[in-house]
Design a protein that fits this description.
Largest sheet: 5 strands, mixed
Distance between the termini: 20 Å
Oligomer: single chain
Length: 287
């Protein structure tokens, strides 16, 4: 049984004994004079691709996005993606893990969640220029390694998250009228889904973790995204199934086991109910 390929951050300014990892490179360095193709894989870290000029295609969790000038892609740990960049791209590729950037301030945590929830944001030229200055400053700090440069990078990551969230288009996941508390609990629910979907598939299991009633959680999800909590749970199960179907050669029975299903027939019926295809048919049509 094979797992989805997981890439590591290539380099770090930290000693090997430290779990903190961070890296930033220019796209000119990454892409060079030849087209770049990264096959389907996932990360255990945050991945931000800021394209100043360039073109290509970026498939994230089976949604295909065009790579255009002034675009920023934000990928969370666990998501799968495939990236094609044409030669001559300019911009930045930045990677960091939870150990390096782990805000403890409530508002900073919320900003990171909001910024990382939407995979693509398209900026106009003046707005992207503000981001470009932040990335350039972080790159210089990383290259020069002067005293307290790690703290400087983390402080600039705070500023970057503020700029991303300010654009508003990163917040499309919820209703503009959503109360901050409601938005916060929704983001908490999504985080729990990412961590526990293999073993927790019932609404009651998440309400226990969140100290809410089923009615309260449903009101939160319906107000913010117009769906019930059970719908969101089912969508996340299907997403994880698709990740394994397209990123590994594993048999359907093996994937069912990985997702916590002992009865493969039930898993196949569940998948077909929500996609219109059997797992094998979905794999074939998507390749």
């Amino acid at each position: 049984m094979k797992s989805i390929p997981v890439r590591q951050i290539r380099s770090s300014f930290m000693e090997e004994v430290s779990p903190e990892r961070f890296n930033i490179r220019t796209l000119e360095e990454v892409v060079g004079t030849k087209d770049l193709l990264h096959q389907l894989h996932r990360h255990n870290f945050f991945f931000i691709l800021a394209v100043k000029d360039g073109s290509g295609t970026h498939d994230i969790d089976f949604t295909s996005y065009p790579v255009q000038n002034h675009s920023v892609f934000f990928i969370k740990p666990g998501q799968v993606h495939q990236l094609e960049l044409k030669a001559g791209c300019s911009g930045y590729l930045m990677e960091f893990n939870n150990e390096f950037y782990h805000p403890i301030n409530k508002s900073k945590i919320q900003r990171l969640r909001r910024a990382s929830r939407k995979n693509l944001c398209q900026f106009d030229s003046p707005s992207f220029h503000r981001l470009d200055l932040i990335f350039k400053y972080i790159l210089d700090e990383y290259a020069d390694k002067q005293e307290s440069y790690q703290d400087s990078i983390k402080a600039n990551l705070d500023i970057l998250m503020i700029e991303l969230v300010r654009q508003g288009r990163f917040s499309e996941i919820s209703s503009p009228a959503a109360h901050p508390y409601t938005q916060e609990r929704l983001e908490e629910f999504f985080d729990l889904l990412e961590k526990h979907i293999i073993i927790h598939k019932q609404v009651s299991q998440y309400t226990d973790l969140m100290n809410l009633s089923s009615f309260q959680l449903n009101e939160i999800t319906k107000e913010t995204v117009g769906k019930t909590s059970s719908q969101l749970i089912n969508e996340h199960i299907i997403l994880e199934a698709k990740r394994h179907l397209l990123a590994t050669p594993n048999q359907v029975k093996e994937i069912a086991e990985l997702l916590g299903y002992e009865d493969v027939s039930y898993f196949i019926r569940f998948f077909k109910k929500h996609t219109g295809y059997s797992p094998e048919a979905y794999r074939l049509k998507s390749r």
